[in-house]
Specification:
The chain is built from twelve helices and no strands. It has two domains: 1-53, no CATH class; 55-279, MetI-like fold (Orthogonal Bundle), CATH 1.10.3720.10. It has helices at residues 2-38, 55-63, 66-97, 103-115, 118-131, 138-162, 166-174, 179-208, 211-216, 224-233, 240-262, 267-279. One of its GO terms (biological process) is transmembrane transport. The chain crosses the membrane at residues 12-36, 69-95, 107-132, 138-161, 182-208, 214-233, 245-265. This is Putative spermidine/putrescine transport system permease protein.
Length: 280
Amino acid sequence: MIRDQGIGSKLWRFAVWALAGLFVLNLLAVIAAVLVNSFATRWLGTWLPAGWTTRWYFDAWREFQLSNVVLVTFQIVFTVVLISGIVGVVTAYALARRDFPGKRAVILLFLLPLLIPPLTYGIPLATVLYQVGLGGSFWGVVFINVVPSLPFVILVMIPFIEQIDPRIEAAARVFGAGTGSLFLRILLPLLLPGMLAALLLVLVRTIAMFELTFLVAGPTTQTLVVSLYYAVFASGVRAGQSIDAMAVIYMVTTLFWLVLALQFVSPTQIVARAKQQQAA
């Protein structure tokens, strides 16, 4: 009986690793196919393209007006990061330092956009934004992306703030430090790693956010991922290599910021801090 359980356990582990391996292999194959096709002059029915070229990247850059799209993308992204950072750090500080009735309910309310699917609240929110005249505008896209980004900053920053001994702040005030001086000279250096981690992850999340941005983006406020969607499904005939080149540009942009974010924090650290907060 014990031997049967051992065999069953080994088979289960083998099945899990096999499925994980197949998933990774399939993902790498798709990425490789897109990457190779973006450099191919012609690729039909053979293992490798008939020739290689970089002209599809130049064609995609002109055809899809990627200069404007990339500029708008980073304008929206950095505005979302700035607003989420300022409001999120202040809110996280208040929640970490103050106890009041209903505090857990307030934290749960802030975390709801992370717990429910984006379209669940995105469609009603987009309807409201169109009714007040923000649909299709720059600030409409910023606002709808701030909704899930702000709770993310709060979730990451609360454990960082709770690690700082309140007696450090009290001692600084005893020696005459004002609120601004206390934040800039005492709190900011201690919170900087957490702030960088949170804001970089918000940046990556906003670049990759398709559902919410798609609901309110207009012709001049499309981010890179929404523009990629329209390039694929819009009417007309387009070279597949141009679309793949655009996809590679989007993939490299997102991957760059993701790798940079992971230099400051890992997902396991965030989960560990969240569990510590729940246990406390």
